[in-house]
Amino acid sequence: xxxxxxxxxxxxxxxxxxxxxxxxxxxxxxxxxxxxxxxxxxxxxxxxxxxxxxxxxxxxxxxxxxxxxxxxxxxxxxxxxxxxxxxxxxxxxxxxxxxxxxxxxxxxxxxxxxxxxxxxxxxxxxxxxxxxxxxxxxxxxxxxxxxxxxxxxxxxxxxxxxxxxxxxxxxxxxxxxxxxx
Length: 181
Description:
Layout: H1 9-25, H2 28-33, E1 36-40, E2 43-48, E3 55-57, E4 62-63, H3 65-90, H4 96-100, E5 109-117, E6 126-135, E7 139-147, E8 154-163
Helix pairs in contact: 1-3
């Protein structure tokens, strides 16, 4: 029995990068905030490029707390989605073209999200990484850390719990009747 020939590295990288671009482009709020994602293997780093519209207190100036929280939550959700896509992407069951055509997977839903503001976010680029503590079929727990100039000097961190999307099943048995019957 012959083994299939391995794909060239640039083909694998292009497939992974295309899938990540499609995933991120599928969430308009990510584009509104200007969040970008850098990929190294299966590790993602979220980047929030500085923009004056992100400043909440112009007297300091400091990043708006809501922007910081949204940045951390988006990082957690994209990390969870990326982790769930990874196997299908690597086995060829999912293509970047299918993702770009709007066949995006359902994203995890936030159950709760707690942010610790450790210091003011300065008017400069910010970075974040999420670590999945637990991910099962129904529930996931994620920790996110954000920094600016020095990775060891965090300006915010968060812990979130998420409801993982179930399998895409359609049909009359999965649609509740109007009125809850």
